[in-house]
Amino acid sequence: MDTIPFNRPPITGREIDYLKHVIDSGNLAGDGPYTQKCHAWLASQLGSPHALLTHSCTGALEIAALLCDIQPGDEVIMPSFTFVSTANAFVLRGATCVFVDIRADTLNLDETLIEAAITDKTRAIVPVHYAGVGCDMDTINAIAARHGLKVLEDAAQGLGATWRGQALGTLGDFGALSFHGTKNIVAGEGGALLVRDDAHAEHAEILREKGTDRSRFLRGDVDKYTWQDVGSSYLPSELTAAFLLAQLEDSQAITARRLAAWQRYRDALLPLEAAGKLRLQAIPEEARHNGHIFSLVLDSEAQRTRVLQALREQSIQATSHYVSLHASPAGLRHGRASGALSVTEHVSSAQVRLPVYADITESDQARVIATLCSAL
Ligand SMILES: *Cc1c(COP(=O)(O)O)cnc(C)c1O
């Protein structure tokens, strides 16, 4: 029986041509022509005023935390049901994470609980668009405006998805995308920072290039570049950008195939949800998602263990995540929970993620569904 992997990156075939072009050019470092093409693609296709490639979404979140001017003792509101990078970016600046529960339907930050978590130390809200399903950005942006807070969207999983027709990552002050090998559109390791206003974008360019104005120099705006501010090296090489450009150019087709696979699971499992056997992720009317994750939530951790075991016995690589940040060793030191995080704790203990990728076959999906149904 062939193994059904959890994930397989979508390779378009053009990556190798673009990589060869970079190798032949001899210019391997960052911010060359392929990086510029990726910037232009992201800006035009996502409708973002400014887009900067980074070596990871983690790097993009770190730049954004610097742009938010986070100081030791500041507080940042985020879900506990997320990847560690969401929190690390701010903890590196000395901030405390204030964890808010997620909604049981969308698995996104519960916008009705945000205001109760705000104190006079709060500086930013970080909505994480789980599985590429948009958070309620209307409510979150309104709360942020009322309290003078920055909004940084962790849109690591959000490329190709929208909220009310606007690309995820472009609705807040900043957005961070990931092109990690496990995401929909990949570069091995890679990410991007989307920035709304011009002053922040100019500052971001400096932070990303070791604190120098090398970007201005490359554009010919200044005749030498100098150390302007604290910063680090967040840019990817041209090899990464070349690989990524091939992926971005095919991203609509890749997303469409993922969505088709996602929908096949959905259609097959809706009757089980109606029978109360599991809970599927709800997609709000305003959200167009990208099929990044197929998530289902069971009744208990024991049931989850049985289901994952049954899938494993059929050589199906299913998985789960996240170990809640508020209950993790570093989360206990660097964060606190705002109120009870009961949905987070339940989902974190009873969720199953099914294999989903652009070229998963219908027969493999049928095997996953049959195994799942017989294990429930
Ligand atoms: C993948 C992911 C990240 C980190 O992305 P990298 O590109 O690997 O740094 C951050 N946040 C979320 C929600 C993610 O899923």
Residues in helices, as a percent range: 40-55%
Query: What is the chains' assembly state?
Result: single chain
CATH superfamily of the largest domain: Type I PLP-dependent aspartate aminotransferase-like (Major domain)
> How many beta-strand elements?
14
Using the coordinates shown, work out and report the CATH topology of the largest domain. Aspartate Aminotransferase, domain 2
What structural category do the secondary elements indicate? alpha/beta
Largest sheet, strands/sense/barrel: 8 strands, mixed
* The number of domains: 2
Mean pLDDT: 97
Tell me which CATH architecture of the largest domain applies here: 3-Layer(aba) Sandwich
The ordered string of helix (H) and strand (E) elements is: HHEHEHEHEHEEEEEHHHHEEEHHEHEH
What is the level 1 CATH name of the largest domain?
Alpha Beta
Adjacency order of strands in the biggest sheet: 1-9-8-5-4-2-3-13
Which regions contain 5 or more consecutive residues with pLDDT less than 50? none
Task: Describe, in plain words, how this protein is organized in 3D.
The chain has 376 residues and is of the alpha/beta class. It has 2 domains: 15-250, Type I PLP-dependent aspartate aminotransferase-like (Major domain) (Aspartate Aminotransferase, domain 2, 3-Layer(aba) Sandwich), CATH 3.40.640.10; 252-375, Aspartate Aminotransferase, domain 1, CATH 3.90.1150.10. Helix content is 41%, strand content 14%. The chain has helices at 15-25, 33-46, 57-67, 84-91, 114-117, 137-147, 198-208, 214-219, 238-249, 251-274, 301-313, 329-334, 342-350, 362-375, and strands at residues 50-54, 75-79, 96-100, 122-125, 150-154, 162-163, 166-167, 174-178, 191-195, 279-280, 287-288, 294-297, 335-337, 351-354. Helix 4 links the parallel strand 2 and strand 3 (96-100). Helix 1 runs antiparallel to helix 9 (238-249) and helix 10 (251-274) runs parallel beside helix 14. The chain binds pyridoxal-5'-phosphate. Residues 56-58, 82-83, 85-86, 128, 154, 156-157, 178, 180, 191 line the site of pyridoxal-5'-phosphate (PLP).
